[in-house]
Specification:
Elements lengths: L1 H16 L6 H49 L10 H18 L4 H29 L2 H24 L6 H20 L9 H22 L12 H10 L2
Helix pairs in contact: 1-6, 1-7, 2-5, 2-6, 2-7, 2-8, 3-4, 3-8, 4-5, 6-7
């Protein structure tokens, strides 16, 4: 925002110092810059909002998959594999810990490794138990539920890294600053700086860009998806 304000005033003073008047052709070019900024801002906002909604849906899908797999454990004989329910509880605890501590990279990496280890142990024990029971229908139901549970985990991990290339955000920042300069340049005829208009312009552009970044990184800014983690926490409380 400070950069926008600086370039608005710099463009205005530069034009006044050199007695530059904005001709119709220059106004057309300025309009093209503003149009390009609007197009890029709309595209990045639309993409960020779509990915934000997809991440929220994936949390619900993950919870549903975990709940289904947990219920299908009842198909297995409890006496043959008493450790599976405890492994499931520890696995859900691990996933909740990952979501609540993403800002600590080292702790998150360690918890991810722990979660993957629990995932492998759940699979190995479930497959061994299904082999002992030797009922194809039960094996199919349990294995399908576990596959869905593990697949959505992979999908969510990949979705967390799905962002536009940094060059797109760089171009967005550059266009915003360029728009501020040409807008200030176009105000050369004003005897004094129209600060209410300049502040409004800078605030709205900055807020729009900040909102795009917030949607793109929903666990780092003021736009959050933490509330959807409550569905997973509710599932954990139901695992008696």
């Amino acid at each position: 925002m400070l950069g926008l304000l600086f370039l608005l005033e710099f463009g205005r003073r530069l034009a006044r110092r050199h007695s530059i008047s904005v001709e119709a052709a220059a106004g057309t070019l300025d309009s093209a810059v503003f149009a390009l900024l609007g197009l890029l801002l709309a595209c990045t906002f639309s993409g960020a909002a779509g990915r934000f909604d997809a991440r929220r849906a994936q949390i619900v899908e993950k919870t549903d998959a975990l709940g289904t797999a947990w219920l299908r454990l009842d198909l297995l004989p409890a006496e043959s594999q008493p450790a599976l329910p405890d492994l499931f509880r520890r696995y859900v605890d691990s996933r909740l810990a990952i979501c609540s501590n993403l800002q600590d990279v080292e702790a998150t990496t360690a918890e991810l490794q722990h979660s993957n280890a629990l995932q492998s142990e759940i699979w190995n024990r479930a497959v061994a138990t299904c082999g002992e029971k030797r009922e194809p229908a039960t094996t199919t139901l349990v294995v399908e539920a576990l596959n869905a549970m593990f697949d959505i985990t992979t999908t969510r991990a990949a979705a967390a890294h799905m962002h536009p290339p940094l060059v797109v955000f760089g171009l967005l920042f550059l266009l915003a600053l360029a728009s501020a300069f040409v807008a200030g340049h176009g105000m050369a005829s004003a005897p004094s700086a129209p600060w209410p208009h300049m502040l409004t312009f800078a605030a709205m552009i900055s807020a729009s860009v900040y909102l795009v970044l917030g949607l793109e990184y929903p666990r780092a800014g003021f736009v959050r998806i933490d509330g959807f983690d409550q569905t997973l926490a509710n599932l954990r409380r139901s695992m008696h």
